[in-house]
Amino acid sequence: MKRRNIRLKALFYVNVLTLLILVGYKIYLNLYKPDVEAIHAEQLLEIDAQLRGQDSFSFAVVGNINNSVGIFERTFVPQLNQSGLAFIVSAGNAVSSGGDDKYRSLHGTLDKLDIPFLLTFGPNEFSNFGSFRFYEDFGPHLYSVRAGNTRLIFLDSTGKTPYRWQLHWLQDLFEQSDAMHTLVFTGHPLLPIKQNRFFVRDDDYLQPEAFRVELLELFRQHQVDAVFSANIPVFSEQVLDGTRYITTGGAGGLILNDADSFHHYVEVSVTPESVETQLVPLMIGQHPFWATVEGLWFFFYSLFYVGFVNFLLLVSLLSLIAIRLYLLLFTERSYYRDFDINPAPWLDKPLRVAMFTNNYLPFIGGVPISIERLRLGLQELGNKVLLIAPRYRDQPEVEPDTLRLPSLLAFGKPGDFRLANIFLPRVRRELQGFQPDIIHVHHPVWVGSLGLYLGKRLKVPVVYTYHTRLEHYAHFVPLPGRLFRNFISHALIKRFANKCDGIIVPTYSAEEYLRMIGVKTPTFVQPTGIEYQRFLQTPPERVRALRQHLKIGDELVLLSVSRLSNEKNLDLMIDAAAALKRSSHQPFRLLIIGDGHQRGRLQQRIDDLGLVGWVTLLGSVAPAEMPIYYGLGDLFVFTSKSETQGMVLLEAMAAGLPVVAVRSSGTDDVIREGFNGYKTAGNQSAWMAKITELMEDEALRRRLGVNARDFARDYSVERFARGVKHIYAEVLARS
Hints:
Layout: H1 2-31, H2 39-51, E1 57-62, H3 69-81, E2 88-90, H4 100-110, E3 117-119, H5 123-126, H6 131-137, E4 143-147, E5 150-154, H7 163-176, E6 181-185, H8 209-221, E7 226-229, E8 235-240, E9 243-248, E10 264-270, E11 275-281, H9 288-303, H10 308-330, H11 344-347, E12 352-356, H12 366-380, E13 384-390, E14 402-405, E15 407-411, E16 417-420, H13 425-434, E17 438-441, H14 447-458, E18 462-465, H15 481-499, E19 502-505, H16 508-516, E20 523-525, H17 540-549, E21 556-561, H18 570-583, E22 588-593, H19 599-608, E23 615-619, H20 626-630, E24 635-638, H21 647-654, E25 659-662, E26 677-680, H22 684-696, H23 698-712, H24 717-734
Parallel strand pairs: 1-2, 2-3, 5-6, 6-7, 7-9, 12-13, 12-17, 13-14, 17-18, 18-19, 19-20, 21-22, 21-24, 22-23, 24-25, 25-26
Antiparallel strand pairs: 1-10, 4-5, 8-9, 10-11, 15-16
Helix pairs in contact: 1-10, 7-8, 12-24, 18-22, 21-23
């Protein structure tokens, strides 16, 4: 089964390659401009040269060539070249449409003719803005030429040239003509065919009716010998007032291979005395059975107006669809993980792990802190970790097992977002020297992409931790916000994740998101760990000193930890604080820990709302000092919707704080409603209602705080590191 799937996949990619080559060829046809201009002028010179001094000659009339390579080019052209005819005339629809590539293909077909040719401007030549191409390549849509003793008149039946102007021109031409015979070519037939064809519509005939009526009268008055047209895939000959009206549509098009619709051309013989026409059918398929089969084939072939290249495109597309359907319907699948995989050999030995990240300490954020805890936890378990991260101004001078990349540029405020130089050759040298067992990337772009690239080059499995909901960071990207949020961010995550060998997500809701966007890579749910014991050992005297420093009296302290950025939804928090100030009898202080590019704007909003003394932006706090600050709080509040886990929620719980947060993928799995906190809708009234309830009910606040501390115990760094080590081992066992 596996070998068959490999063959089918190979065939699938061959078809994809064929499709790309053919599409490229079509693009080439559109870009390549053959050196042609007013070809009819050259053809007339050849016709004049052939007919000089001759009173009698013969030529062929064909209709509905329709860019038919399989029929016209391979069957008609060889016979016409050997027929001894002086020239051929297309009665219309030499192309399947007026597209540029169709005209270029037509030139390739006409070049195979050994005799001159003239084209009638028909409905297909006119379609898809083809009128200017016809004019450029061949000449006017409406014209008259002299062939020996015969006047050939070509009318425009498409409506491009006003019919009243054509009638006036034609009247003058007839009155001045001294030709012995007159033949007219018009793309649309004038007379209804006697056969009642189900596929013939009224607009397949010359329009408007007034044009038809006046033309018929002119032809009667001036004794026109014959009128040739195409546009309908039949042969029909009718005589009206001494003029023969011949519809010939047998050079391609919608052919049914029956008594009326068959492949043919008309041979026209001109002598001084008369004009004679002879039908020349082309037999394609001798046996009646094969004639029927070929009739059906050519019906569909012509129905889609496909030439050779278009035919291959269609076949390739259908092949792709067939292969994909086969793989979907007949290939056995198991949606359970492979229980025969044994990760034990990698669990029992130290691993060498290379981590790639776009940001790291001393930059303060959830991802750098999570990476640092994982690094320390893995090292405690005896593993070796090499960290590749950007360089910062205030970083430690000595950092064992850390490769810092110089920055190409810094942006954001206060310049903590670094675009690292990922093009340094020494990165690969250092990585090769480290000889990693596994590569762990923490971002789907830039440094993370470098880690993925090097993993593939060195044939080392790559694990990716999905930390961040990119769609909430559109304001950092120089692209239309909706385009990035609604498409690019999800496509980027999907493409990157499917190239990795394993995905770590902190919550089940994050795993669900990845499946929804089409990620197929094995995914493992592993919540980020916290240093649980540190939050239990907060010296009371340090907390009291901090309260005095911040001039906090008996107020209830609402604490929040968040980067001051758009995606954190802090306007909701500040507006709610203003509403609480007006409605609550309980005095409170809202302390927001964190920094970011929105600090100035948020401080101005606090000032404008009269919240100075009620809301304080504390700025960044070193991770080692965070337990003291959590010790200040009575209640932890959170409004961000951009988290994948919300590690600060767990830290607050470890410090014994109940949590009120806006419901999102990052909070849904760590907050148990009414047990360790509340999740609310993302509106001010719902969020405020739960905060007010906890502010006014001390017993409830204490009970939820105790539950929160018990809940956070399961999220220790030690358990986190062991879980990630197990994921590494399983990915290595799969490789």
